[in-house]
Model the fold of this input.
Amino acid sequence: MALKITEQCINCDVCEPECPNGAIFEGEIHYQIDPGKCTECVGHFEEPQCVQVCPVDCIPKDPAHVEDEEMLMAKYYRLVAASSGEETT
Done:
């Protein structure tokens, strides 16, 4: 499942550059995660990098976007194909 950033975010700016998919962006109040781009770092790393660097532990799994490992890997492949200009089916 995709991750989300809660209101406990202190806007410390450490998570955004760690995201290999560019899923993290600055929201109106705090950073947010685009669930369409979040793969929990599947395909890139063993563990979500944003969670690893977050000093306040405010990045849980998002129950509104439930995905298993296979779905996250498929999303990873779609994102990689899209960024390289390949067509996806």
